[in-house]
């Protein structure tokens, strides 16, 4: 039987909240009760109780939903799957089964120790598999091995038929294939309750990786230097970075607001496609691109040391050097990158880019990252710029998954974190301003200004980084699912398997 947490339970105050401390926005928005499930049978029992009682179910695996899709559920019920945290449930061989409550780091650890394989997922260790995989799921190995959902071969899911009866299903490419495809990237909370993910095969992780961290101090960072940095970063991933020998490299440029003090930073993880670090030519090619940044350091070599392959006469320095460079085994490196941060009030936005940054885009970003707003503390406001593409961009997967973005070379995540509710208005103003301004430039579509509408430059938004602000645009579903046949297909699946729209939130698939 599921464990039922009500408002008078001392655990309720903690369990009603997710990772984003903004939600529930007020006490009356909170769910009436929380069902903690320890098995798929518990989940089916809980879901039937919820539906039969006429309550709205919202689904939680790890609680990292960026918006209010779970925690804000007035008089409803949260179906909490965090205790469905088994990996393979005692099986000694494939298929590999992962529960929706498996936190990524625990999943990586178990898959590696037991079977020597991994999932090409994210770096936030406490994010759970449930929401991560259903929305695509990407991370440091995705340029080499694709998205987590690309490897998915079956799903166990609970749906609700027209009479209100809970139906357990095991779906794959041969049984309920339409629902299976929808579970491979369309996002969570729209179609049913996934209780298990199944993979017939998973990739082997690298034997070793080389990690580098490069610091770019704000002190002395002129607008021209900033533009040079962003264009250098983007141009590499648009061109050389898409060649197969560079697919084992993933870089993250974190541009923090100037008020945060200190510096911006870029982290790089590299391995050859065969999982070794024997040939560092591609890594040095990348680091050489930053010669114009002028950091005097030595090239990467095979001894466990690496750095910018730059000459001392390279000109005025943009970066203060490679602060951390080391050769590590993959498991240690993954463990060192598995932090998710503490709960805070937050707002997020996203964009896919099919090209590097233009000068206009770079200057716009500089303007807002150095902007001040009276009485608003903008520390904790950042744009994370991830390298993308490689194996992710295999076009044949457009027909078998529900991820439409298969042509991008960069993926942007706009974020702002703060502690006090009194700062909400100022923080939300800043992140909305930069986003609208950036996507209203000369390269924006005149009919879709303020958004990264699909074009030769942009490829919409990421459903796992949902943003309620997009609801103000009638075409918001196309931003996340493309302007082709994918969203109409998902609507057909929705009507077929959730005819009463039991599973819904602000950005769920519309019937």
TrEMBL record:
The record's listing under PROSITE patterns reads: FAD_PCMH (PS51387)
Please report the stretch or stretches of sequence annotated as the FAD-binding PCMH-type domain.
Answer: 27-204
Q: Which Pfam families match?
A: BBE (PF08031), FAD_binding_4 (PF01565)
Which cofactors does this protein require? FAD
Molecular function (GO) terms for this protein are: FAD binding; oxidoreductase activity
Q: Which InterPro entries does the UniProt record give?
A: BBE, FAD-bd_PCMH, FAD-bd_PCMH-like_sf, FAD-bd_PCMH_sub2, FAD-linked_Oxidoreductase, Oxid_FAD_bind_N
Q: Which UniProt keywords apply?
A: FAD, Flavoprotein, Oxidoreductase
The family annotation for this protein states: Belongs to the oxygen-dependent FAD-linked oxidoreductase family.
User: What name goes with this protein?
Assistant: FAD/FMN-containing dehydrogenase
From which source organism is this entry?
Tunturiibacter lichenicola
Q: What is the lineage of its organism?
A: Bacteria, Pseudomonadati, Acidobacteriota, Terriglobia, Terriglobales
């Amino acid at each position: 039987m599921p464990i039922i947490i009500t408002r008078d339970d001392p655990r309720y105050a903690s369990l009603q909240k997710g990772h984003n401390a903004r939600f529930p926005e007020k006490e009356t928005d909170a769910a009436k009760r929380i069902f903690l499930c320890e098995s798929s049978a518990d989940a089916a029992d809980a879901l039937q109780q919820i539906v039969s009682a006429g309550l709205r179910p919202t689904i939680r695996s790890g609680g990292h939903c960026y918006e209010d899709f779970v925690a804000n559920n007035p008089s409803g019920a949260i179906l909490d799957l965090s205790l469905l945290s088994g990996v393979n449930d005692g099986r000694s061989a494939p298929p590999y089964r992962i529960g929706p409550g498996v936190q990524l780091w625990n999943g990586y650890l178990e898959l590696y120790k037991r079977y020597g394989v991994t999932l090409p997922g994210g770096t936030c260790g406490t994010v759970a598999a449930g929401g991560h995989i259903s929305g695509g799921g990407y991370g440091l190995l995705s340029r080499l091995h694709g998205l987590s959902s690309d490897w998915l071969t079956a799903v166990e899911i609970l749906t609700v038929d027209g009479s209100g009866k809970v139906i357990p299903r095991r779906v794959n490419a041969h049984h309920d294939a339409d629902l299976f495809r929808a579970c491979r990237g369309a996002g969570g909370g729209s179609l049913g309750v996934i209780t298990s993910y199944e993979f017939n095969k998973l990739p082997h992780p690298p034997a070793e990786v080389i990690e580098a961290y490069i610091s770019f101090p704000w002190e002395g960072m002129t607008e021209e230097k900033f533009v040079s940095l962003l264009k250098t970063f983007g141009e590499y991933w648009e061109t050389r970075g898409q060649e197969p020998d560079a697919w084992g490299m993933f870089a993250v440029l974190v541009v923090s607001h100037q008020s945060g003090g200190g510096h911006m930073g870029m982290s790089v993880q590299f391995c050859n496609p065969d999982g070794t670090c024997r040939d560092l030519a591609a890594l040095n090619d990348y680091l050489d691109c930053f010669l114009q940044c002028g950091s005097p350091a030595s090239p990467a070599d095979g001894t466990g040391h690496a750095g910018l392959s730059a000459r001392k006469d390279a000109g005025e320095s943009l970066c203060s050097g490679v602060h951390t460079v080391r050769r590590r085994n993959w498991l240690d490196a993954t463990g060192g990158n598995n932090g998710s941060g503490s709960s805070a009030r937050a707002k997020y936005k996203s964009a896919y880019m099919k090209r590097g940054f233009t000068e206009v885009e770079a200057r716009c970003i500089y303007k807002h990252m150095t902007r001040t707003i009276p009485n608003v503390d903008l520390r904790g406001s950042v744009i994370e710029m991830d390298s993308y593409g490689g194996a992710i961009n295999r076009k044949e997967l457009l027909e078998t998954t529900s991820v439409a973005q298969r042509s991008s070379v960069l993926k942007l995540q706009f974020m702002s974190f703060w502690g006090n509710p009194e700062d909400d208005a100022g923080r939300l103003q800043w992140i909305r301003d930069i986003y609208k301004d950036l996507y209203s430039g000369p390269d924006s579509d005149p009919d879709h200004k303020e958004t990264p509408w699909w074009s030769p430059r942009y490829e919409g938004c990421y459903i796992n980084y949902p943003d309620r602000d997009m609801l103000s645009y009638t075409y918001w579903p196309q931003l996340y699912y493309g302007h082709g046949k994918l969203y109409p297909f998902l609507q057909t699946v929705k009507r077929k398997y959730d005819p009463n729209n039991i599973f819904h939130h602000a950005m769920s698939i519309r019937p």
